[in-house]
Amino acid sequence: MKVLTILFLTLICLIFLRCSEDSPESPPANSTGKLFVQSNPSGAHIYLKGINTGKTTPDTIKNLAQGTYDGFLYLQYYDTAYFTATVFNNTTTTIDSSLKDGLPMVEFLFDFQIAFNDDSVRFNFTINQDVTMDSIKVGRPVNSTGTSVTDKYSYNAKLFEARDQSGNLIKYYLPPSESGLQYYPAIQNNDYYFSMFGHKAYGAKLEFRSYYLVRL
Length: 216
What we know:
By secondary structure, the chain is mainly beta. It is built from one helix and 15 strands, in the order H-E-E-E-E-E-E-E-E-E-E-E-E-E-E-E. The protein has a four-stranded antiparallel beta sheet, with no helix packed on it. Strands 8, 9, 12 and 13 form a four-stranded antiparallel beta sheet that branches. A four-stranded antiparallel beta sheet has the order 11-10-14-15, with no helix packed on it.
């Protein structure tokens, strides 16, 4: 009787092992992939399927189901960068994006005031955004015969804000008060040239070189 019992148990074990060998192994139920996102410059907010992930570049988004994901990167003063990423199980997909400066070109708007019996002139300008000014050159006539001079004012990356705290455009004057002059000689029917050098104050801080002409 004991022998029969042992043979029966052995037969059951062999059948179980045989069935185990014939059945395919099921994939893990929790298989997921990862998405690593980096950008130049870093610090961009990562959005996936229109939702803020709460992460900034460079960072990794984990536990993503296999599939295709649309997303974008947002960083203030830069153009929004869109991407599409395909994620695979047990794999890390990498997105590397170069962000482009999103600020407009630097523009100056000039005006002037004539004073003292029309023989003196003072210029003013406003800016469409904050800049750090390196220098300003003013090419101006000194008499009606065509004689001219060039005044150069150095600022060494001084911040020129576009607006005050109330949102009003700030006027800057030429000649600047610190130069000791308040006005230039006003030579009618002559051209005054302005060369502005500096960088945007934010974003990629791109360099600008702007040239303007004002005729009295």
